[in-house]
Amino acid sequence: MATSARSEDRALGGHGKFMDQLLKLAREALAEGEAPLAALVRKEARVLTRARATPAASGLRQHPELMALDSAGEAARDGSLYVTVEPCAMCLGAAALLRVKEVIYAVADPQEGGFHTVIYTGELATRAPAGIGGICREQVTELIREYLQRQPRGPESARLRALLAS
Ligand SMILES: [Zn+2]
Description:
Layout: H1 2-11, H2 16-31, E1 38-43, E2 46-52, H3 64-72, E3 80-85, H4 89-97, E4 102-107, H5 114-117, H6 122-125, E5 130-132, H7 137-150, H8 157-165
Parallel strand pairs: 3-4, 4-5
Antiparallel strand pairs: 1-2, 1-3
Helix pairs in contact: 2-7, 3-4, 7-8
């Protein structure tokens, strides 16, 4: 059991353990009727902060990655940000400003995702986080499908439906 979990983690480039925690957060959001949007900030072996969609969140607080980054602050430097859906331009900008080294996401967002829409120049170009997409994509896609079945007209439904189509 432990051996197979370890080899699976290797297949995920060492991200498996953190993706498991991220998927758990996304399922918690889904259980509350929210979109399966979740984020966590990791530094080496430690998870610094976690955030997910909640019924109480409004405005920019609906972006869990911004919340997780904001809570981590300067400690996020050289850390990794894990998110279920590719972060938007605002959240990726926050990651770059905090000098996060990499962003690991499950589902890409070719329309609004920061890695698809932002081109850095100047100083930020030298320290923009690397993007690693498609990790645990099947699992998150399944959670998004479940959300759309329950909330066909939820606040995130149109955007998430477009992701599944792309
Ligand atoms: Zn965002």
